[in-house]
Specification:
Number of strands of chain B: 10
Shape of chain A: globular
Organism (chain B): Pelagicoccus albus
CATH superfamily of the largest domain in chain B: NagB/RpiA/CoA transferase-like
Number of domains of chain B: 3
CATH superfamily of chain A: NagB/RpiA/CoA transferase-like
Bound molecules: iron/sulfur cluster
Structural class of chain A: alpha/beta
Order of helices and strands of chain A: HHEHEHEEEEHEEHEEEE
CATH class of the largest domain in chain B: Alpha Beta
Oligomer: heterodimer
Distance between the termini of chain A: 61 Å
CATH class of chain A: Alpha Beta
CATH architecture of the largest domain in chain B: 3-Layer(aba) Sandwich
Organism (chain A): Pelagicoccus albus
Protein name (chain A): LUD domain-containing protein
Largest interface: A-B, 73 and 101 residues
Number of helices of chain B: 24
Strand content of chain B: 5-15%
CATH architecture of chain A: 3-Layer(aba) Sandwich
Strand content of chain A: 15-25%
Radius of gyration of chain B: 25 Å
InterPro entries (chain A): FTHF_cligase-like_sf, LUD_dom, NagB/RpiA_transferase-like
Domain LUD (chain A): 98-194
Chain lengths: 201, 465
């Protein structure tokens, strides 16, 4: 008895054998899937900010303002990537842990982790496993703050993809977790963050 | 209204509520799709055509690409499995779970698992399985099935959902969609933490890099790969694309085509187990490539349907789907794509679904919106032909006998004689015409009066303006 693998391969080969010729791979320009910008922007950062808003993510570059958001969302306690702690440890009223404790999954109201890149054309944040200190820290809290360096903003989805390298797990997040399953009504914060923040440094 | 076709019967018997939910849900997504593609691209058709060619090319070299994918995943540290049919596919999942001593699974949405009835099988084998996509979760507690490939509970309304939640002990009756969502969030969170295995599908597979791409809006597939130790990805062999670069094109198309989003909220690219330094996530990744008659489709003259990326755009735009809803198609894949794919995947049950290719007015809208440019109307015609040649009884039901009509049309003299009798049409009530389609037509509309006259004569003598 042949294995399932052999069965599948031989079925594919016999399905394709009668074809007089096989379709060639089309040539296409990297620009093809690049979307039209929604306006004139001087910098990628400005375009990113515009698209983040369009995707209902929030854009911040001032930690005081971020603290105000956290407090207004009843989110004074959270988790923060230890390497990013110096950026946020002087914020009044905000406390966090830098070691993720799974038993506190519902107590951490915010999570601060690194973004590997951000995509200006779509307002997307990109997280690789290498740069993410704790997957749950980026996913489970109500507010996720992704810290992205200005020089890591790329123009297009294609450029972000070309930075994948050999990382085993890469996430693009374009907006907060959401659903429209119930009568098509949009609700944010289904399993993942209800508020997605890009913090540009 | 008298009708013998199953899909018409279902459409006729839908409650007003369900009919409206289906219709509005589909229409809304179509409108968003037009807005998004038009806003973002000068020539969206160029993208669709290119994407279609890439997939056609991949399918016609599938042996090479599948082999390449296998090698790439293995290189990345994932375990690759193959399953020729549904029995093998289900068993593979169970074997992996047993081998690892796993008892419980959280899973994200996958039409393929619906196809092979994985849930029932695992539950009967003593495993706990929880659907985590909100819509799929609601279907699971209701023992129901998806009626749309992207928005599985488009046929349900909030009142029904609230009742189900109350019945399942998820709080008192409350039909506010936000409350429903929050309750599901709280309930499922514990499930994610407790589960041993996370199972996902894949929207695309990059052969070159050995990565699957998964798109979700809720983030549930991410959660299915966060707390547990084993990740199983179940993938149809037709999901392969050659390279990561191709993903830029497909991801830009799938969100806009399906729901009118520039990108779906989460696009995940998984190519192996987590890095050793990462505290969370699966230490093992298994990928199961499933055939389940896809190679039969590949051998057929409808192989283009394997390009499908399951965006749902053809369902949303289809006048038949909008009226009948997804359950009318009596199979996992509804709408235009389902009318082609379901009978083909049915194997020797083809005759039972052979009426589905007739559930189309051949208006061509499905082809026009399809992000991989599948000529669905052509494929429907090919399948109608196949059904006719094989004498599939389901396909013949409700179809008028056209023999007399054909004779009439091929004999000019008979045709002319017949026309002289046209005026009698004005006096015979059409209800009396012993013909189901004439009768159902007459149920809702009136035939205009027969005016007579000679078209050819009129055409010859008319004044050109
Ligand atoms: S056939 Fe085309 S339009 Fe329909 S679901 Fe598949 S990809 Fe989308």
């Amino acid at each position: 008895m042949s294995s399932d693998r052999e069965k599948i391969f031989s079925a594919i080969r016999s399905a394709l054998a009668p074809l007089p010729e096989r379709a060639a791979k089309p040539d296409w320009d990297n620009k093809l899937p690049v979307s039209r910008p929604a306006g004139d922007f001087d910098t990628l950062e400005a375009q990113l900010a515009d698209k983040l808003a369009f995707a209902s993510s929030r854009y911040y570059n001032d930690s005081q303002k971020l603290a105000e958001l956290l407090l207004s969302e009843d989110s004074a306690f959270g988790y923060c990537d230890p390497e990013l702690a110096p950026l946020f440890d002087k914020l009044e009223g905000i406390t966090f842990e830098t070691e993720y404790d799974e038993s506190k999954i519902d107590e951490y109201r915010f999570g601060i982790t690194k973004a590997t890149a951000a995509v200006a054309e779509s307002g997307t944040l990109m997280f690789t496993d290498r740069d993410t200190s704790a997957r749950l820290g980026a996913l489970a809290p109500w507010i996720h703050v992704a810290v992205v360096k200005k020089q890591d903003i790329v123009a297009t989805v294609g450029e972000a993809i070309s930075k994948f390298g050999d990382d085993p797990s890469i996430i693009f997040a374009t907006g907060p977790s959401k659903t429209a399953d119930v009568e098509g009504i949009l609700i944010e914060g289904v399993h993942g963050p209800g508020i997605q923040v890009a913090f540009v440094v | 209204m008298k009708t013998k076709q199953k899909i018409d019967t279902v459409a006729r018997d839908l409650s007003d509520e369900v009919h409206e939910a289906n219709f509005i849900g589909a229409k809304m997504k179509s409108e968003r799709r037009y807005a998004a593609l038009g806003r973002d691209y000068a020539d969206p058709d160029k993208l669709r055509e290119t994407a279609g060619k890439i997939k056609q090319h991949t399918l016609e070299h599938l042996d090479q690409y599948l082999e390449q994918a296998e090698a790439s995943f293995t290189r990345n540290g994932a375990k690759v499995h193959f399953a020729f049919d549904e029995t093998a596919a289900r068993q593979k999942v169970l074997d992996i779970m047993n081998e690892k001593g796993c008892k419980s699974m959280v899973k994200s949405k996958s039409m393929l698992t619906e196809e092979i009835h994985l849930l029932d099988f695992l539950e009967k084998s003593g495993k706990e399985v929880v659907e985590t996509d909100l819509g799929e979760f609601i279907l699971q507690i209701d023992g129901d099935h998806p009626s749309h490939i992207v928005t599985p509970i488009v046929h349900k309304n909030r009142r029904g959902i609230a009742k189900s939640f109350e019945r399942e002990g998820l709080g008192e009756y409350n039909d506010d969609p936000e409350t429903i969502t929050r309750r599901a969030r709280a309930h499922l969170r514990q499930k994610y933490l407790d589960a041993d295995v996370g199972l996902t599908g894949a929207n695309f597979v990059s052969a070159e890099s050995g990565r699957i791409a998964i798109v979700t809006n809720e983030g549930n597939a991410r959660f299915c790969m966060a707390a547990n130790k084993v990740h199983i990805a179940m993938v149809g062999i037709e999901k392969i694309v050659p390279t990561d670069r191709d993903l830029a094109l497909f991801l830009n198309l799938i969100g806009r085509s399906g729901t009118g989003q520039q990108l779906t909220v989460y696009n995940q690219f998984i190519g192996g187990p987590k890095r050793p330094e990462q505290p969370h996530g699966p230490e093992e990744m298994h990928i199961i490539f499933v055939d389940n008659r896809r190679t039969e489709v590949l051998a057929s003259d409808c192989r283009e349907i394997l390009r499908c990326i399951r965006c749902g755009a053809c369902l949303n735009v289809c006048p038949i789907y909008r009226q009948s809803g997804g359950h009318a198609y009596r199979s996992v894949y509804p709408g235009p794509v389902g009318a082609v794919l379901s009978p083909l995947l049915a194997g020797n049950r083809f005759p039972q679904l052979a009426d589905l290719p007739k559930a189309s007015s051949l208006c061509g809208a499905c082809n026009e919106v399809c992000p991989v440019n599948i000529p669905i109307p052509d494929l429907l015609l090919r399948l109608r032909d196949k059904a006719k040649r094989e004498g599939a009884s389901e396909a013949m039901k409700g179809t008028p006998k056209l023999g007399m009509w054909a004779t009439l049309c091929s004999q000019p003299s008979m045709w002319k004689t017949a026309l002289t009798m046209g005026h009698t049409m004005n006096y015979i009530p059409t209800q009396l015409v012993p013909h189901p389609s004439a009768q159902s037509w007459q149920g809702t509309r009136k035939l205009p009066k027969f005016q007579g006259g000679d078209f050819r004569k009129w055409f010859k003598n008319r004044k050109k303006k």
